[in-house]
């Protein structure tokens, strides 16, 4: 918020590219910038009070490009359902980065909306992975000690699945637990091809950035348009989910 306020005061910027963790608190400042003629584009997380609404919420905002966190959670839920098929009970460890973040709450709700009708699926533990492999490694070790019969581990970040893969190997469970991550990073693709990770939900951050910058450049150069929403998944050659069956066709856009 301070950065955006400083940008308004400086009067130096014709356009803002905002990638927030939570767009709600930024809304008044973004509205002020738009009133002063600044073109605003957002990616990753919607700018506005409703984190589950991917459509542009702020009047005059040029564009938002990104995935909805609730539907992203639903995609992770579909992966869990696949991993638990034919297993009853199927014990699952859900590892969000930081469970208290609004975006993670929306993602969790989306996942739960898919798996709740599958009575064989039991979420036996929810632990923070901290968006890094090292804390995810420790969290997974602790969970596997408490719940040795876990069949599926699903996380909101591929980097955390990398830590979970190592923890499973240390526990003597390499290849015995289905591992599902989020992002389909370069590292995740490698792990999937090696058979160490089972699948991933696709993210396309470079595509999001390109779409936002192109729209902002056009707006600044007089081709005014507002309220644009871009779903980056329409640019994915494999659709929203990556598995060993299709991941060779996918070009990751970021590293874990």
In short:
The protein starts with a helix and ends in a 13-residue tail after the last strand.
Quantity of strands, as a count:
10
Strand order of the largest sheet: 5-4-6-7-8-10
Helix content: 25-40%
What's the structural domain tally?
Answer: 2
Give the overall shape.
Answer: elongated
Query: For the report, how would you describe the main beta sheet?
Result: 6 strands, mixed
- CATH superfamily placement of the largest domain: Response regulator
CATH architecture of the largest domain: 3-Layer(aba) Sandwich
| Alpha carbon gyration radius | 20 Å
Distance between the termini: 27 Å
Total number of helices: 8
Could you explain how this protein is built, in words?
- With 256 residues, the chain is of the alpha/beta class.
- It has two domains: 2-67 and 204-235, Response regulator (Rossmann fold); 69-202, Response regulator (Rossmann fold), CATH 3.40.50.
- It contains eight helices and ten strands.
- The chain has helices at residues 2-10, 27-35, 69-83, 102-115, 133-146, 158-170, 186-193, 205-220; strands at residues 15-18, 39-43, 63-65, 90-95, 121-126, 150-155, 178-183, 199-202, 228-230, 241-243.
- The longest helix has 16 residues, at 205-220.
- The chain is elongated.
- 48% of the residues are buried.
- The model has no long low-confidence stretch (mean pLDDT 97).
């Amino acid at each position: 918020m301070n950065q955006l306020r400083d940008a308004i005061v400086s009067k130096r910027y014709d356009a803002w590219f905002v990638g927030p963790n939570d767009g709600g608190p930024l809304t008044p400042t973004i509205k002020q910038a738009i009133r002063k003629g600044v073109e605003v584009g957002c990616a990753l997380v919607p700018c506005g009070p409703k984190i589950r609404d991917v459509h542009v919420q702020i009047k005059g905002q040029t564009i938002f490009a990104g995935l909805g966190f609730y539907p992203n959670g639903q995609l992770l839920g579909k992966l869990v359902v696949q991993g638990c098929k034919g297993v009853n009970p199927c014990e699952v460890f859900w590892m969000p980065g930081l469970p208290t973040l609004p975006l993670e709450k929306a993602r969790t709700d989306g996942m739960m909306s898919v798996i709740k009708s599958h009575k064989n699926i039991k979420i036996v533990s929810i632990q923070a992975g901290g968006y890094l492999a090292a804390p995810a490694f420790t969290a997974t070790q602790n969970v596997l000690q408490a719940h040795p019969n876990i069949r599926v581990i699903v996380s909101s970040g591929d980097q955390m699945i990398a830590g979970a893969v190592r923890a499973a190997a240390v526990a003597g469970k390499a290849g015995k637990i289905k591992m599902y991550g989020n992002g389909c990073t370069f590292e995740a693709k490698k792990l999937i091809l090696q058979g160490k990770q089972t699948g991933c939900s696709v993210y396309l951050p470079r595509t999001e950035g390109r779409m936002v910058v192109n729209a902002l450049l056009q707006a600044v150069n007089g081709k005014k348009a507002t309220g644009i929403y871009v779903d980056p998944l329409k640019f994915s050659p494999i659709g929203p989910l990556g598995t060993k069956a299709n991941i060779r066709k996918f070009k990751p856009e970021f590293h874990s």
